[in-house]
Amino acid sequence: MTGGQPRNLNRAFEAHCRKAGVPRIRVHDTRHTCASLLAALDVHPRVAMRILRHSQISMTMDVYTQIPSPETRKALDRLNQSLDGD
Predict the structure, then answer these.
(1) 70-84 and 27-40 helices cross at what angle (nearest 10)?
(2) pTM of the predicted model, to two decimals?
């Protein structure tokens, strides 16, 4: 529980990162990562908008997403295969 306080959420998030042994990032940065992954996976922008809880599609398209290059797509495909154990 975070008690509804942003400070508590940040502390809990940092504790989980430490426990998982992953680099510390801001909670807000996870939104950018999520948006980039959704774009790379060809999730429809309107669906991404709902997931990210944006009120305007322009926020989703202009600020958060990046269109992956063919090289990025190949790398993501390889990452997906390695995670699936193929």
Answers:
(1) 100
(2) 0.60
